[in-house]
Amino acid sequence: MVEQILKASEEFGFFQVINHGIPENLMNQGMDVFKEFFEMPTEEKAMLYSEDPKKTCRLSTSSANYDWEKNHLWRDNLRHPCHPLEECIKDWPEKPIKYREVVATFSVEAKKLASRILEFISEGLGLESGYFRDKLSEELSLVVNYYPPCPDPSLALGFSKHCDPNLITILHQGDIYGLQVFKDGEWIGVEPLHNAIVVNIGNQLQIISNNKLKSAEHRVVTNSKVSRTTAAFFISPSDDTIIEPAKPLTDACNSPLYRPFEYKEFLRTFFSNMGNNDLALEPFKLQAKLSI
Ligand code: OGA
Ligand code: NI
User: Fold this and answer.
1) pLDDT, tens digit (0-9, with 9 covering 90-100), for 32-61
2) Ligand 1 in reach of 277 Cβ (< 6 A)
3) What are the domain boundaries of the chain?
4) Does the domain at residues 2-246 carry the CATH identifier 1.50.40.10?
5) Which positions fall inside the Fe2OG dioxygenase domain (predicted)?
6) Is 230's C-beta closer than 6 angstroms to any atom of ligand 1?
7) Number of the ligand 1 atom closest to the C-alpha atom of 164
8) I need a surface site. Which of 78, 155, 221, 274 has the fewest CB within 10 A?
């Protein structure tokens, strides 16, 4: 299994997990409250709507850059932190009535699954057990995406091409198709597998693995028939964590490809180059040393 995870993370940057331990009824209950949330009347949701990125729990439309993005996205989203639970739960939506209870349990399970997967990845990379524990995976936040049916899917994307800036993402994509991954110049679909969890490698895991693992670009296409709701749990380092290629993975033959930096510095660059992964990574790259 460790080999399979590594192979998929090197080749695709994406894989799906079945028998992941998150109870099926919890996943269904989660999906139900997320759908119910977005189906509530506008007046019920209006107080959560905000364009202020500093607001911890907020509902917004399209991306974080609504005013300056070239094309708007066919997407609403709700985002909030999930850890530590006692601190953040008070800011979560109060409706639907079951939201807090269900999402609390779901987020604890998602964090547990992420920790297990990170442990397999550290084993596969040959890093010590617990390498990603603590600061590298301290933050957990949830983004619930709601993609309404789109009258003309050829004119709008649900989410344009991007890489996730964090360490690793745990996604419940439900049963409706829409997610695509860019590989070898082509978009390939991530076919929904009932109750599977989609996992993708974020920019920080690519950097820490010194480019062994791939943070793949992905996007979401729209459809004209049904709405699509997805829940993405983002596992991230805390803001002041120093990120750099793991020392055991670099030596005289494998020089580090990135300089050390604070995670918050990466986020700043990432959000000012929204959607362009090469530009986001550029300031952190080290020139390969050529020896003659
Ligand atoms: C994301 C994302 C995919 C989806 O939230 O970063 O890529 O299918 N979501 O909603
Ligand atoms: Ni993403």
Assistant:
1) 999 999 999 999 999 999 988 889 999 999
2) no
3) 2-246
4) no
5) 138-237
6) yes
7) 6
8) 155
